[in-house]
Amino acid sequence: MEIDLTNNTPVLLSRIGRPESHTLSDYRADGGYEGLARVLRDMKPEDLIQLIKDSSLRGRGGAGFPTGLKWSFLPKDHPGPIYFCLNADESEPGTFNNRILMEEDPHQVIEGLILACYATRSVTAYYYMRYEYPRAWERLLKALDECYSAGILGKSVLGSGFCLDIFPHRGAAAYICGEETGLIESLEGKRAWPRIKPPFPAVEGVFRKPTVVNNVETVACVKQIVDRGVDWFKSLGVPADPKNPRDPGSYGPKLYCLSGHVERPGCYEAPLGITVHQLVDHFGGGVWKNRHAKAAIPGGISMGLLKADEFDCPLDFAGPGRYGCLGLGTAAVVVMDETVSMVDFLHNSARFFAHESCGQCTPCREGTAWALRMLERIRAGRGRLKDLDLLLEIGDTIGIMPGTTICGLADGAAWPLKNAIRKFRSEFEEYMQRTNPSGYQQTDAVPALSSLSHGGH
Amino acid sequence: MPQLTINDDLVECRVGLTVLEAATRQGIVIPTLCHHADLSPVGSCRMCLVEVDSIDGQVAACTLQAEDGMRVRTESDAFAKSRRMVLQLLLRRYRRPDKLAAGENELERWARHYDVPILSSSNDELLGATRYPIDSDDNPFIRVDLNQCILCTRCVRACEEIQGRFVLGVGDRGEHSHIVAGAGTSMLDARCESCGACAAYCPTGALSDRMRVGQPEPDRSVVTTCSYCGVGCQFRLEVKQDQIVSVASHPEAAVNGMSLCVKGRYGWDYVHHRDRLLVPRVRSHVLDGRLRSAGEERSGWVDVDWDTALEVVARNLIRIKQEHSANAIGVLSSAKCTNEENYLIQKLARQVFGTHNVDHCARLCHSSTVAGLSMAVGSGAMSNSMRDIAEQSQALFVIGSNTTEQHPVFGAMLRQAVLRRNVPLVVADPRRIDLTEFATLHLRHRPGTDVALINGIMHVTLINKWHDVTFIDKRCEGFAELCASLEIYSPEYVAKITGVSALQIREAAEILATNRPMATIWAMGITQHTTGVMNVLALANLQMLLGNLGIPGGGVNPLRGQNNVQGACDMGALPNVFPGYQSVTDAAALQKFSEAWRCSNDAGVDLREISAGLTVTEMIEAAGQRGLRGLYILGEDPAMTEPDSNHARECLTNAEFVVLQEIFPSETARYCDVLLPGTSFAEKDGTFTNTERRVQLVRQAIPPMGDARPDWKIIAQLAQEMMRLENRTSVGPDAAWQYADTGEIMGEVARLTPIYAGVSHHRLIQGEQLQWPVRDERHEGTPILHVGEFTRGKGRFHAVDYLPPQEVPDSLFPLVMTTGRVLYHWHGGELTRRSTGLMSVYPETLLEIDASDAHRLGIGDGSMVRVSSRRGVMVAKAHLSARVFPGVVFGNFHFPAASNVNNVTIAALDPIAKIPEFKVCAVRVERC
């Protein structure tokens, strides 16, 4: 069922596109930081947590975990400091919504961050931004300066007595730093090897203290909920499935990143639950060059793959799962037209994950590399039908879901493998038959695999 | 206690254990690769996946806390499949070397178990080239072949968590991840100490012992005790036929577990060195029965058989006894030899020669400790155990001990205490030694100002009323005098003497006094001073003041330098005591030993009529003056280790008759008349007593080299020969010299020595851990001394005042020389200079000098310099280092002749303990 978009008005993106939107004065002219002042004056932290719980806000970073619930995992009356990490290590291929917010409206993010810190009683926040966002970085530093000068940060936020420092921290270009415990390790100056959970960061996070890690868009939503209220937030999106008691619903606006073979790629705001069709057609102006779509990734490459006939998939937290994908992820939709080879797509995906695997767990470190070698060989015209089953076996056995790895990176590598081969198997088979007519039916062991690992690129 | 079901067993385990640990205790094997019980779990290899009812999917057992009610399954087809996948993936990375250094490794064992084929470049042409250069690091001890690495990171964790060194890490990511040293340098450049822990924990041989490469598979393995420092590590000597092929960790070792240092693990090749003495030698003039005339040089060596050699020695010593007196003979015993040998040599001196002139190098290291602690608490020994200090102290005070270099395994334990438990560590040392990197506070006091520093700390303690009033009232005496004496030692006054700021003195006092128990640890930096006894008394004062005695994690803890220096003292190789510190002037003790050792005739010997004997330094001096005619030296090297060694060598040159029982022609051998080839620790049985009073077995692994004999046999045979020539037969119950094995000797020790009364080889073989006093066969020993009561009853405070060192810098000799040892060498260097690996890392003597001093003197890093004192000259290569501060230089005594720092040191002695002031003298440094 499609969401009615006739009255769709951007909220998170309402200030985007104006030349001075990133400045404090422009932000304040739009009522910026008034919500914060009101909360600091009228609300206790636990009231704010309750407000967010009531809103059913779910984290926008990819996993969709209920934000208020995450905050309530923090130990009560913790004697030491609680830390807050803002995850701005936006690295999922196809994803750039955080970037838009941080470049164009940094104060919205900072206000949301301050609110989140107040709710969680954090007195120190680390703003962890990926290295490749120089403009966002520059604007963040400037915005923080403005905030300290204006008394919005520091010893007494807006004169309330609430003390908060935000330390900007720039990553060093590794996908794994977006995994929350990888981020924490990296922040501590170590190799970003994700930690074993439990303990979860809420119990033992940065410098072994209770820590909250939230995504940029999540805290921006916090700010909007404070300004506009729970009812507004819950008026958007998809309600909880009454048949599934564990479904908290998919409420509120969402920033969708649309890229690939569409006429108007971009970052679009819409209520959670619009379909791929709506995103592609209503916002993206349709598939480019009057071609047909062949497939799309639903929410970043690690979520898997939708075929064109699955574009009625609603992009809420539950939707993609019903279409054989991992989930909504970062809501970054990449559309591929009919000219794209799935072999190339999968090779590209495998290359990415093999490159970004942190190297800690055997199945991911070796498995992603092994899958890449295999796809290199297939592309080189030496593929065998049997290879597809081997790839599927890897896809089915690596990852946090089967439990063979510490973090979810391997799952991300596995879903494109599983989806591409299961949904486009005939294309792979035809490719092999065409490029390796004499050998595609071989089933012997393949000693050549290892040799390719040396000759490969 | 949580109860969980593992497979079909109900398992109860204590809180905090992982599922893997609970299963292991139950005897259930779960395959692992990255896990090791000594190391923190990382859960990265994913071999140990299990299924738990309450958790979706599989989960790593090594990182999962066992919880009440869990239902765990460890085996199923699915697990076998996923383990096989892990192995397949790892074996894709693993390149089996064509020729394996050791047998099947852990990875290959699991591969065999799960029936996963191991490919190797020789049986699969397509595996092709290796990813990494083979043997890629130039470390002389550890061989690196990353082609065998499966990235379990045990080496990284061993380096961090066991050794506290942080040399290794992981570089790059994904399949390109690989182990790196530092930021991609060589291991030594990344400050590797070559302890070998990384190789010991490696499950595949990617890191391995270089000395093992090309060696055959051992045919047996003998657990024994290390022959280097006093920590008393145990390890396995792996032997093929009669050759040692390697030293391997013995995980059950009581003191050290898997941990070893570079000398212990890799410094054993001296045993097979070509310099080993294989036959007895006698100077030709001695063989001819001729004495040297004054100024005549010693004649050449003649190889002889044992009967001849022993007869020459016996006849000459009897001649001296008859022509002069028994007291004209002196014996230098050896802290490198076993308890049994030390017992025998003092018995030889006392029963057969008839003199108390027996001493050993403890004189030069901890005689001031023994004297000082005896006065204060009644026992000269380390009061606590290394493990309880490392695991239970709440603060650590290390003064005058370069622990990580001289007692490396204990040094690593101290690092662990800081890293794992955040124990505040105060290091007082004139040099910026390695341990200062782990210290909360480094007090860099001037050499020889220890008393002032410690008094200052106590002054602050008293002012703040941090002292333990109850403890002092109940267990100590002399408190009022102490308080009075401390009055003038205000931090400001002490700052002037020591060069440590008043603020730091206050900080140190607060750390040490307010975190209890606090353990005080010291070594030669405290003892080798003319004020050595006073330094020790001051430390005893401090620990009594704070009530840190008789409890785990506290204590007075002198670290003994040699493998068996504690035992040599215990066995009575000292001029004033029988075994077990029974005084030679005590009537009951005299009666006991006279009776036990009684012979048919006394040959002029009556223990009751001879006075206490001479100390090492006095014996050397007396030999030079010919007051002492015969000198019997067991495994000591006074030509290297005496202070003012020019003078010591002169004395030895003049000495009439010198016998040396040794394994190498040491520096001292030049000055000897008879050389008797003894054996190394690998070739004999016995026991060593480590620094914490733990008696441990030494087991013979290989037969003696050539005609060499175990030292205890040589001593016993000489005794028998002399008794034969003097027509004496044994009468007393312990007078005879027929010992079938060293266990019998220990039996005799136990009969005569109350603190060893319950020690026997049998108990040790059974695996009992015995720290003396062991009162009887059922007593379990005494890990902590002074519990409830001091050995002397009440602890005695001694008011001690600061006195400056004997020699202070002046315009002629403007720098302070302080001395010590380095990680890669040991004492006079006779052993370590014969170890190829150790020499390749530290081949020559270095003089540490501050850069500003060096600059002023026109000395660059690596320049050859001449160091002169009023007594002599040393030549060394300058090492510009921030370890020493301006005005101080540091030298070592590991290298002979012109390179020996003892050419310049001073023979100024502590008046009570007679220990020389090795740690301070005045020198001048010039470019050669």
Instruction: From the 3D structure, determine the CATH topology of the domain at 281-365 and 615-755 in chain B.
Output: Rossmann fold
**Termini gap of chain B:** 71 Å
Shape of chain B: globular
Quote the beta fraction of chain A.
5-15%
Count of helical regions of chain B: 31
- Name the structural class of chain B: alpha/beta
Q: State the CATH architecture of the largest domain in chain A.
A: 3-Layer(aba) Sandwich
Number of helices in the DSSP assignment of chain A: 17
- CATH C-level class of the domain at 281-365 and 615-755 in chain B is Alpha Beta
Radius of gyration of chain B: 29 Å
Major sheet of chain B = 7 strands, mixed
CATH homologous superfamily annotation of the largest domain in chain A: NADH-ubiquinone oxidoreductase 51kDa subunit
Low-confidence stretches of chain A: 447-457
Structural class of chain A: alpha/beta
Question: Strand order, biggest sheet of chain B?
Answer: 14-13-27-26-25-15-16
Q: Would you list the SSEs of chain A in sequence order as H and E?
A: HHHHEHHEHEHEHEEEEHEEHEHHHHHH
Q: Round the Cα radius of gyration of chain A to an integer and report it.
A: 23 Å
**Main β-sheet description of chain A:** 5 strands, mixed
Summed over residues and divided by their number, the pLDDT of chain A gives a mean of 94
Distance between the termini of chain A: 46 Å
The quaternary organization reads as heterodimer
Characterise this structure.
The complex is a heterodimer of chains A (457) and B (928). With 457 residues, chain A is an alpha/beta fold. Chain A has helices at 24-29, 34-42, 45-55, 67-72, 97-104, 106-120, 134-149, 180-187, 216-234, 276-283, 319-322, 342-356, 362-382, 385-397, 409-423, 425-435, 448-455, and strands spanning 83-88, 124-129, 165-170, 211-215, 237-238, 250-251, 253-260, 266-271, 293-297, 306-307, 332-337. Chain A folds into 3 domains: 24-235, NADH-ubiquinone oxidoreductase 51kDa subunit (Rossmann fold); 250-337, Roll (Ubiquitin-like (UB roll)); 342-453, NADH-ubiquinone oxidoreductase 51kDa subunit, iron-sulphur binding domain (de novo design (two linked rop proteins), Up-down Bundle). Chain A has 17 helices and 11 strands. Chain A starts with 23 loop residues before the first helix and ends with a helix. In chain A, 56% of the residues are buried. In chain B, 30% of the residues lie in helices and 16% in strands. The model of chain B is unreliable at 122-128 (pLDDT under 50). Chain A binds chain B through residues 174, 176, 191, 193, 196, 354-363, 365-370, 393, 397, 400-406, 447-451, 453-454, and chain B through 41-47, 49, 55-60, 63, 81-82, 85-86, 89-90, 92-93, 119, 124, 126-129, 131, 150-151, 169-170, 172-177.
